[in-house]
Amino acid sequence: MSFVGTRPEAVKYVEKYKPEYMATLLLPAGITSEATPPSLDDSDYEKILEKALHVGYQKHNEEKAIEILDNVPKNFRDKQWYAVKRQLLENSIRKHSLAKRDILANEYTKELKKLDDVVEQKYGNINLREVDLLPDM
């Protein structure tokens, strides 16, 4: 990948592209390209987490808070992120179960199971309810 400008792709590789890969040729390579995802620093992550906590816990809009959390890139997701998402999912399950919205409650239960599987794979057998809601050090 070029740092700023474009670098033409080698013809021998382009000839092997599947049709859906051709769209990548429309955007220039390099870190200034629109194809390069924006970076996120620790202060941005903390702001996103604070916003999700505010929306989820003070405004009681768990679904919006989950949506906010899901915008955090995977490489920034630490134990705190997983613990907050787990709590929001549990609250959503409880809220929808009490309102007899079983289909929604079941969907959030499936999402919670997936989250638990990711956490176990990443951190081993830990109980997120016991995790201090401070960022990983």
Q: Unreliable runs, pLDDT <50, ≥5 residues?
A: none
N-C termini distance: 32 Å
Mean pLDDT: 78
Rg estimate, integer Å: 20 Å
Strand content: under 5%
Q: Could you tell me the number of beta strands? A: 0
Major sheet description: none
Q: Structural class per helix/strand content?
A: mainly alpha
Number of helices: 5
Order of helices and strands: HHHHH
Shape: elongated
Q: What's the helical proportion of residues? A: 40-55%
Descriptive report:
This protein starts with 10 loop residues before the first helix and ends in a 14-residue tail after the last helix. The protein has 137 residues and is mainly alpha-helical. The chain is elongated and about 60 Å long. It has helices at 11-14, 42-58, 62-70, 79-98, 102-123.
Outline of the structure:
By secondary structure, the chain is mostly helical. 53% of the residues lie in helices and 0% in strands. α2 (42-58) packs antiparallel against α3 and α4 runs antiparallel to α5 (102-123).
List keywords for this structure.
mainly alpha, 137 residues, single chain
Task: Indicate the topology.
Elements: H1 11-14, H2 42-58, H3 62-70, H4 79-98, H5 102-123
Helix pairs in contact: 2-3, 3-4, 4-5
